Amino acid sequence: MNSSKPRYEVPTIVRNASGLMNKVGHRGSLESRTQIDGVDVDSLIKDFGSPLFVFSEGTLNRSIDEARLALEKHLPQSQLCWSYKTNYLGAICAIFHRSGSLAEVVSGMEYEKARRLGVPGNQIVFNGPAKSEAELQRAIQEGAIIHADHFEELRLIERIAQAARTRPKVGLRVALDAGIVPRWDRFGFSLESGVAEQAARFITDSPHIELGGLHTHIGTYIVDPRAYGRAATKLAEFAEYIEATLGCRPTHLDLGGGFASTNSLATQYQSGALVPRQEEYIREIGRALAQQRGAKLPVYLETGRALVDDCGTLVSTVLASKRLPTGRNSIVIDAGVNLLFTAWWYRLELQPCCPSDGFIEDTTVYGPLCMNIDCVRESVALPPLSAGDAVLIRPVGAYTFTQSMQFIHLRPACVLISESGDVELIRRKETLEDLIGPEIVPERLAIERARSNLSDHHDGLRDVRSGAVVQ
Ligand SMILES: Cc1ncc(COP(=O)(O)O)c(C=O)c1O
Prior knowledge:
alpha/beta, Lyase, Ornithine Decarboxylase, Chain A, domain 1, TIM Barrel, 9-stranded mixed β-sheet
């Protein structure tokens, strides 16, 4: 055989993706980005490792300012509440609290987290469908703003209040039809079916509890701001109705969260960059409430993803690049669905850190888990990338960290880049201790007892039936 003859390689035909356009416009810039807020990505990886969550304080502050300005303009009697579950890293919550946000929590764990950060109980909005008796006792004692989700909870609160000889205010979560699909009706008391009115009567009839606010959270990633106008109108009319029929005025209206962030939903054709600004939602609420005749109630807003998503980036590194048998290009990176649970419903953007003038191809991006489901993007246009190249994944400020898990890999560090460009560690990289610390191995399973078996195995394999060592 002639050794100088080149080896045959199966040809690969790939669609030419030049032009970067699709039906709704540009497919996004593929320009590389070597810095985050003026800090070199290479130096971040060198100092803190890869993968790495990076949060930008500047971006977060601009987003909070945008919401605050819109509230001053359209809803002056209002209060921002920070939805903890969106991102409850202590430093992120602290930025919200410093800017005057209350804490909005949906579990005892989140409540405790807010208290440890120094938030007084009366500045915590306690929502959620699963509050335990002990958690409610504490919340009542500390004067938290409670929104009840179901009748069992109302009865429990009544019992606690009776025993404690206090008369706490209890708000109601109201499920209402704001004309959006899918309509959320599993949380709270339904307005249209009359259950919310029954719940309000339950409270006003009780000698042990008083009516607090009316809360609704119509859904999440709502792209039609007018839905908030409709929800605000319905909630305000319900408040007027309660006052007229039950003689009791609710203390506030709470319009929940749900404003869309600039992330793109996996099912959405257009880019998330085209979603309404926070002001458009707030303006609709302001307009709707301005048309109400009755007394104006203070408004609480529990915004989550719209405020924080943009400030988060996950730095990741390419481990390998592979041409799949179908001809499709793929890369394996060091961050998968263990860190990016949000990749299930978002089309997260990937941006290379190193300049490349190579041919742009639709690429599948896999994570490092030894699981077939570990796919970060089924198809994303990327230039050629090789092992060791860094990529930026964004936006990941909302839900990504709180929903991350320690599957096969421990969670990486989180850093905050301050307005002045300082890089501060806000959560260290996890160690094995963080994982095994809470574990208990029963004494009878202690490894010493198993050691004799293990050494047998080193000497040879055991016969499955007889148990004898096979040399
Ligand atoms: C009661 C409540 N308020 C606020 C939020 C924040 O929602 P979002 O992140 O969509 O703004 C949520 C999240 O689902 C929620 O359940």
